[in-house]
Amino acid sequence: MDISSFIYSLDLIGVGVFAISGALAAAEKRLDILGFLLFGTITGIGGGTLRDLLLHTGEVFWIGDTAYLWMCIGAGVATWFLAHLFVSLRRVLLWADALGLALFSVLGTQKALAFDAPLLVAIGMGMMTATFGSLIRDGLLGRPPVLLEPDIYVTAAALGAVSYVALESQPWAREAALPLAVAAAFSLRAAAILFDLRLPKYPPE
Amino acid sequence: MDISSFIYSLDLIGVGVFAISGALAAAEKRLDILGFLLFGTITGIGGGTLRDLLLHTGEVFWIGDTAYLWMCIGAGVATWFLAHLFVSLRRVLLWADALGLALFSVLGTQKALAFDAPLLVAIGMGMMTATFGSLIRDGLLGRPPVLLEPDIYVTAAALGAVSYVALESQPWAREAALPLAVAAAFSLRAAAILFDLRLPKYPPE
Amino acid sequence: MDISSFIYSLDLIGVGVFAISGALAAAEKRLDILGFLLFGTITGIGGGTLRDLLLHTGEVFWIGDTAYLWMCIGAGVATWFLAHLFVSLRRVLLWADALGLALFSVLGTQKALAFDAPLLVAIGMGMMTATFGSLIRDGLLGRPPVLLEPDIYVTAAALGAVSYVALESQPWAREAALPLAVAAAFSLRAAAILFDLRLPKYPPE
After folding, report:
1. How far is CA A83 from CA A78, A168, B9, B23, in A?
2. Sequence-distant (≥ 6) Cβ neighbours of residue B183 within 8 angstroms
3. Residue in chain B nearest A25 by alpha carbon
């Protein structure tokens, strides 16, 4: 598999896990099947859509390639029939969200660099791609936003974006930059979930 | 009247009824006159604006043609002076919203097809054009979103979009595809309001 | 200093004061340092970003020039360390917001005119540039939106936009149109804060 098919696969997986997290949030609110599809789709493609609009990529990624929408629809339907198998919806949602966060923070940064964005802008794009979908999911559903909980969430997205930019600029690390950065972001987020890590709140000491 | 003027008129009517529904929501919250204009405008043009941005239509529909903004302003002012004539604001808002939903689900699909979007994307665009304006209206006003109520709302938008795509592809039905699809979406939404139809909630039996 | 550097400086100042208002809102919610940066950035660049997307300016203003993002980051960090010096966060936030409102209502209108938008559209763009950042800041944080308080807020943005359009069309006033319109919008908003001015609420007498 060449690198662009690999990235495409990761991108589809990212859309799928975010779509599942959106559908699980719909399950928490006991919506109907179209609510599952709607929130799955918004969460799955929201961050990347904003990224593509801001970068003027010429075409938003899911407009020309319907695989992304089918992935969201499939994730929504699968969640509708399978979500009751899980003891704690909230727990599964947290982990699906963590995987999507790690993938999109890196893939968003990479796409911004491919469109010649300055480094700081690329890092911001990665963070935004990773967090925007869940932000609107939670905003629309009236849930307390994952993003505002004081555990390491935006920080993990920042780590993914920054470590990708750093590794990608080193000739010896370029090949492995993408998986390493995804692993770094996911590990930090996982540690935050498991050990309840958090940054100090305002006011600082 | 040729077909493009007919579509233009329907589009203006759709903007107008959604603007009225936005201004009525402002009335519920007892805002001032500028709040009426603001929420009328956001609700009237919100869905179509997102559609045009995503489709890269070259120009957002209300930028070059001020008739749309004047329609929103007129609807806001008219609602300010006339809304007290209605016994139940909420009831009128529901019906204005239903008409806008039916019109925009079909017109949004049609515009996406005109820009060569795949069928699934065009259906999604129609549903989004029809629901996005009221979604942000309700989000900004802190109202329980119409969209999350378990009655047939997104479903009616989906019916409008799907039936337009189906009819438009048949030579014998093309001429009448637009009014028929609007009628189908409106009838389903009207039945949902009158008979309190709803899809089953999660979890499914 | 020529006129375009002057406008650039005002634009940066506007982004900075809105970023401070966003970071202060994060302080109210006792977020961590990344929350300060996130809400500073969203509030600082949100309105102008939407304006540039809608106007099809070719490039969103902060993508090619990282000074804007650094301004947001600087404002967020400064607020983190300095906000405790203020007795009333809410009071400072109101004034930072008022200055940003005045600057962006005029600068947004000016940019829209530069892209040949019709007058009414340019006025709407100015109002939107001035209010959208604080609207999403408040929406995401679950604060009661500044925008919906019945004091003169959107009205001050409208005054800034309208007076800029009026002055700019007069040969004798063109030079001074920008500072005069900013002063008009700021004075009206300041008077509204100090004297608790407000428009009549619905229903009208």
Report:
1. 8, 38, 45, 39
2. B102
3. B202
In whole angstroms, give the CA distance from residue B109 to residue B121: 9
What backbone phi and psi angles, to 5 degrees, belong to C9?
-65, -45
Q: Does C69 contact A150 at a Cβ distance shorter than 8 Å?
A: no
Q: Which of C55, C65, C146, C151 is nearest to C107 (CA)?
A: C55
* Cα–Cα dist A169/B60, whole Å: 39
- The Cα–Cα gap between A7 and A29 comes to 33
A73 phi, psi to nearest 5 deg: -65, -45
Selecting from C63, C81, C83 the residue whose C-beta is nearest the C-beta of A117 gives C63
The amino acid present at C159, given as its one-letter code, is: L
Q: Which two tokens stand for residue A142?
A: 């009236």
Beta bridge partners of B151: B198
- Site from A57, A129, A153, A202 to mutate, C interface, most C CB atoms within 10 angstroms: A202
Q: What pLDDT, in 10s, does the model give residues A10-22?
A: 899 999 999 998 9
Return the closest-CA partner of residue A20 out of A69, A73, A66.
Answer: A73
Chain C's closest residue to B141, CA to CA, is C148
Residue-wise pLDDT tens digits, A100-132: 999 999 999 999 999 999 999 999 999 999 988
Q: Which of B33, B84, B141 sits opposite C199 (nearest CB)?
A: B33
Structure tokens at A4: 């662009």
Alpha helices in chain C (DSSP H): 3-28, 33-55, 61-64, 67-82, 89-114, 119-141, 154-168, 177-195
Do residues C107 and C7 lie in contact, with contact meaning Cβ atoms separated by under 8 Å? yes
ipTM (interface predicted TM): 0.85
Cβ-based burial of A17 (10 A; exposed 0-12, middle 13-18, buried ≥19): buried
Tell me the DSSP string of A86-126: -S-HHHHHHHHHHHHHHHHHHHHHHHHHHTT--HHHHHHHH
Which of B121, B145, B202 lies at the smallest CB-CB distance from A63? B121
Subunit contact A33:B154, Cβ cutoff 8 A:
no
Q: What is the pTM of this model?
A: 0.89
Give the N- to C-terminal CA distance of chain B in Å, as an integer: 51
Q: Which residues does chain C have within 8 Å of residue B50's beta carbon, measured at their own beta carbons?
A: none
Tokens 């940054």 sit on residue: A199
